[in-house]
C-alpha cells in the first residue's frame, strides 16, 4: 500500500471512530462552551487586549485536552497492529492531519461562541481568521509530536508539560501578536513576519516529527 493510501486509510479510521463514539468531540465541545460561559460570568465585559489573550488561553487548553491524548489513549495491542499495516511516517502524518481538522473545527466554534458572548470589534476579520487557522495548526503539530514522545515515557503528563512549554510559549506569543494586529486593524503587511515565522515553525515541527517518530515507534 502506498504512503498516501496508508494516510487516507488511517485518517478515515480516526474520523470514523470519532463519528461513532463522539466522546472526545462532545467532551471538548462541552469544555469550550462551559469555559466561555464561566469567563462571561467572571468578566462580563473585556477590553480588546484581555479579550484576545483570554481567547487564546481558552484555545490553548482546548488543544491540550483535544490533542494531548493522541497517542496516550492507544493501547499497546492497537499500536502493534498499526505497526504491521502501516509505516510510522503514515501514522504520524495521519494523526497530525486529524488533529488539525479537529482543532480547526473547535477553534472556529470557540470563536463564534466567544464573539457572541463577548462582543468586540475586530479591525481585520480575515487576518484574525488566518491567525486562528495558523494557531490551530501550530497547536496541533506541536502537541501531536509531544504526545508521541510522552507516550513512550509511560504516558507521563508531567513530562508532556515540560517538553511542550519551551515550544508552545514562543508560538503562543507570535499568535497573540498576530491576532492583536488584526484586532487593531493594522495593515496586513505588518504581520508578514509573524505569519512567516509561524509557517516555518510548523514545517520544522512536522519534519522533526517525521524524523523522530520512526525511532520512537521501534521502542
From TrEMBL:
Instruction: Tell me where it mainly resides.
Output: membrane
According to the UniProt entry, its GO molecular function terms are: heme transmembrane transporter activity
- Identify its membrane topology class: Multi-pass membrane protein
Keyword list, A-Z: Cytochrome c-type biogenesis, Membrane, Transmembrane, Transmembrane helix, Transport
* Subcellular location per the Swiss-Prot or TrEMBL entry: Membrane
User: What top-level branch of life does the organism fall under?
Assistant: Bacteria
Under the heading Pfam families, the entry gives:
CcmB (PF03379)
GO biological process assignments: cytochrome c biosynthetic process; cytochrome complex assembly
A single cellular component GO annotation: plasma membrane
Annotated membrane-spanning segments are 23-43, 49-68, 96-119, 125-150, 157-175, 195-217
- Indicate the family of this protein: Belongs to the CcmB/CycW/HelB family.
Q: What is this protein called?
A: ABC-2 type transporter
Q: Which organism is it from?
A: Pseudopedobacter saltans (strain ATCC 51119 / DSM 12145 / JCM 21818 / CCUG 39354 / LMG 10337 / NBRC 100064 / NCIMB 13643) (Pedobacter saltans)
Amino acid at each position: 500500500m502506498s504512503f498516501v493510501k496508508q494516510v487516507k486509510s488511517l485518517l478515515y479510521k480516526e474520523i470514523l471512530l470519532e463519528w461513532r463514539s463522539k466522546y472526545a468531540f462532545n467532551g471538548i465541545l462541552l469544555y469550550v462552551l462551559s469555559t466561555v460561559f464561566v469567563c462571561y460570568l467572571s468578566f462580563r465585559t473585556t477590553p480588546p487586549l484581555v479579550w484576545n489573550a483570554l481567547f487564546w488561553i481558552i484555545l490553548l487548553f482546548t488543544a491540550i485536552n483535544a490533542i494531548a491524548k493522541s497517542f496516550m489513549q492507544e493501547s499497546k495491542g492497537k499500536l502493534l497492529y498499526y505497526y504491521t499495516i502501516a509505516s510510522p511516517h503514515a501514522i504520524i502524518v495521519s494523526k497530525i492531519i486529524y488533529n488539525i481538522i479537529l482543532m480547526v473545527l473547535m477553534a472556529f466554534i470557540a470563536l463564534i461562541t466567544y464573539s457572541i458572548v463577548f462582543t468586540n470589534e475586530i479591525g481585520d476579520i480575515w487576518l484574525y481568521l488566518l491567525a486562528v487557522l495558523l494557531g490551530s495548526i501550530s497547536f496541533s503539530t506541536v502537541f501531536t509530536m509531544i504526545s508521541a514522545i510522552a507516550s513512550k515515557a509511560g504516558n507521563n503528563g508531567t513530562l508532556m508539560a515540560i517538553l511542550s512549554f519551551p515550544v508552545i510559549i514562543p508560538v503562543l506569543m507570535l499568535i497573540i501578536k498576530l491576532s492583536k494586529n488584526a484586532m487593531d486593524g493594522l495593515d496586513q503587511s505588518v504581520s508578514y513576519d509573524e505569519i512567516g515565522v509561524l509557517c516555518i515553525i510548523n514545517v520544522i515541527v512536522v519534519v522533526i516529527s517525521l524524523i523522530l517518530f520512526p525511532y520512537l515507534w521501534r521502542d
